[in-house]
Design goal:
- The protein has 16 helices and 16 strands.
- It is α/β, with parallel strands linked by helices and 496 residues long.
- It folds into 2 domains: 380 residues, Glycosidases (TIM Barrel), CATH 3.20.20; 88 residues, no CATH class.
- The protein is globular.
- The protein binds 2-acetamido-2-deoxy-beta-D-glucopyranose (NAG) (9 copies).
- One 2-acetamido-2-deoxy-beta-D-glucopyranose binds next to loops.
- The site of one 2-acetamido-2-deoxy-beta-D-glucopyranose has 4 residues, from loops.
């Protein structure tokens, strides 16, 4: 057994040793005020996000991403799958319109064909393999198959009995799709794409999965889950799920396809029956996930082989139907303000410190109006703040209140002074905040999105398209069953 494991580690590392782990971000667009592609890209740059995944192939986004160095995974929505999977020439047209016309200015690295097709559109599953093959052969014809990988994101619910991971296997009903899929991924050097949602696994486990285990928080040794077959210790749901995917592939005799996590995240707000959708948990999950991925810890089965992951997601999508949590998976609001400030001091390369730690100076709500007016007059006079944007008819005139005008002037002064201590005080009527006070086209200094950068040659997004993380309960079901049977989960009670 040890020897077999060793061999597996070896194969995967030789295939993917040269790839660096990355954190990317999914960009869903079901927002009532979706930012213009140029603003989206300004936010990505400000946050040093270098990998994104789109849920379609929006032309405006692809143009805005050109010459930015950002690597782009684009998607073929499920609605287009049938057409492409049934016609080689439709696939070739799609590639020529959406890839060839943008590459290499836009660095498209990956095509996600469909989304969770077996579990959400079982009838389309038979055409999925053809769609993958047709897209790939069109890439070959354009000599782009080495630069661009083709795969299809799957829901983790296709993996059954995922704990202990060594016993995981795919729902055999899907073998007619999975066997040729794995063969295709193997022969084209592509990834096994998996969406992993420990939040749902935890929610559905009725207390079997500890919250800390889902959130990557340290567990006491006697709470760590141990796979009785391999004696591997699992300290979080994410790793267990990735390893379950490796074992499920091995069950079909495939051992050299790396896992790429196409979606993972945690909602920051929920309805009253979703008490664990909180800012604190979302921040903990995403911060820990980012550190885990970038630290190249790997999983217990494949230590050191890190699993690149696309966070779900960039923006809160207020138009998403369903429970409140559905609208609150985002890291940013439509103005580019962080919903919470990720704790990433030791992660460095992604999410720039300065904007992730962006601060603004605002007038205190309820402060004495005379003191505010005096401070405002001072800032716009001796303080040398350019207050012209607040003149009647200018972008920051409305709302015409002392509070709003003072906030504008205080923030400008604070940034003008390099955010030095004491530059946001104004006799106690000002306070530092992380909430961007920009409104409409009145943009405050330091806000990531700069409306003046709008490039009118780039069209706005024309189609709302996104994915829903609803009902992805693969891990939970298996974990729960295992827990009930009491035979598979071995909690180490000082056993080793
Ligand atoms: C695109 O990204 C890949 C992967 O990082 C890199 O090797 C390649 O040089 C990039 N291509 C362009 C045109 O920037
Ligand atoms: C599909 O088209 C490509 C060129 O785009 C060609 O190389 C390939 O042989 C075709 N495949 C089938 C099954 O017709
Ligand atoms: C396996 O997939 C089939 C087809 O979707 C489904 O009917 C069945 O319930 C699944 N089995 C389990 C154990 O989830
Ligand atoms: C995997 O390999 C074993 C042993 O060679 C064989 O018995 C089994 O049928 C294979 N399974 C598949 C799905 O190919
Ligand atoms: C990063 O990895 C090292 C070993 O590779 C480990 O000691 C350390 O705890 C890890 N840090 C985090 C934050 O996971
Ligand atoms: C963020 O801050 C940390 C520690 O202060 C530093 O090591 C890292 O390089 C910074 N990252 C960026 C992108 O500035
Ligand atoms: C965030 O900003 C505060 C105040 O300017 C500063 O003390 C702190 O070190 C910053 N944190 C990071 C991670 O840059
Ligand atoms: C926005 O960008 C323009 C052009 O680079 C610059 O002149 C302007 O000062 C910026 N505005 C803000 C609020 O950052
Ligand atoms: C606008 O975008 C187009 C296409 O990417 C580019 O050619 C043009 O230089 C851009 N204009 C400005 C002002 O940035």
């Amino acid at each position: 057994m040890a020897f077999v494991l060793f061999l597996l580690v070896l194969t995967i590392s030789t295939v993917f040793a040269d790839e660096d782990a990355f954190i990317g971000v999914n960009i869903g667009t079901e927002l009532s005020d979706m930012p213009h592609p140029t603003q989206v890209v300004a936010l990505l740059k400000a946050q040093q996000i270098r990998h994104v995944r789109l849920y379609n192939s929006d032309r405006g986004m692809l143009l805005a991403l050109a010459n930015t160095g950002i690597k782009v995974a684009i998607s073929i929505p499920n609605e287009q799958l049938l057409g492409i999977g049934q016609s080689n020439s439709t696939a070739a047209n799609w590639v020529s319109q959406n890839i060839v016309s943008h590459y290499p200015a836009t660095n498209i690295t990956t095509i996600c064909v469909g989304s969770e097709v077996p579990t959400t559109l079982p009838n389309a599953a038979p055409v999925l393999i053809n769609a993958l093959k047709y897209i790939h052969s069109a890439l070959v014809a354009s000599n782009l198959d080495r630069q661009i990988k083709v795969s299809t994101p799957l829901a983790s619910s296709i993996i059954l009995d995922s704990f202990p991971p060594s016993q995981a296997f795919f729902n055999h009903s899907w073998n007619p799709v999975l066997v040729p899929l794995l063969k295709f991924l193997q022969s084209t050097n592509s990834y096994f794409m998996l969406n992993i949602y420990p939040y749902f696994d935890y929610m559905q486990s009725n207390g079997v999965i500890p919250l800390d285990y889902a959130l990557f928080k340290p567990l006491p040794a006697n709470k760590e889950a141990v796979d009785a077959n391999t004696l591997l210790h699992y300290s979080n749901v994410f790793d267990a799920m990735v390893d379950a995917a490796y074992f499920a592939m091995a069950d079909l005799n495939v051992t050299n396809i790396p896992v790429l996590v196409t979606e993972s995240g945690w909602p920051s707000k929920g309805d009253s029956n979703e008490p664990d959708a909180t800012l604190e948990n979302a921040n903990t999950y995403n911060s820990n996930l980012i550190r885990h991925v970038l630290n190249k810890t790997g999983t217990p089965k494949h230590p050191g082989i890190s699993v690149s992951t696309f966070l779900y997601e960039l923006y809160n999508e207020d138009m998403k139907p369903g429970p409140l949590s559905e609208k609150n998976w985002g890291l940013f609001d439509p103005n580019g303000n962080p919903v919470y400030i990720l704790r990433l001091t030791d992660a460095g390369s992604v999410f720039a410190n300065d904007t992730a730690n962006q601060t603004y100076c605002t007038a205190k709500e309820g402060a004495d109006e005379k003191m505010l007016q005096a401070a405002l007059d001072w800032a716009c006079g001796p303080g040398k703040v350019d207050c012209s944007a607040m003149l009647q008819g200018q972008v920051c005139y409305e709302p015409d209140t002392v509070l709003a005008h003072a906030t504008y002037a205080f923030d400008a002064y604070y940034h003008q002074m390099g955010k030095t201590p004491g530059s946001c005080d104004f006799n106690g009527v000002a306070a530092i905040t992380t909430t961007n006070p920009s409104h409409g086209s009145c943009l405050f200094l330091g806000s990531g999105t700069n409306g003046t950068l709008l490039n009118s040659t780039i069209p706005a997004m024309d189609s709302k398209s996104s994915d829903s993380p609803q009902a992805k309960f693969g891990f939970l079901a298996a974990y729960f069953v295992a827990g009930v049977l009491g035979c598979a989960v071995l909690f180490l009670n000082g056993l080793i």
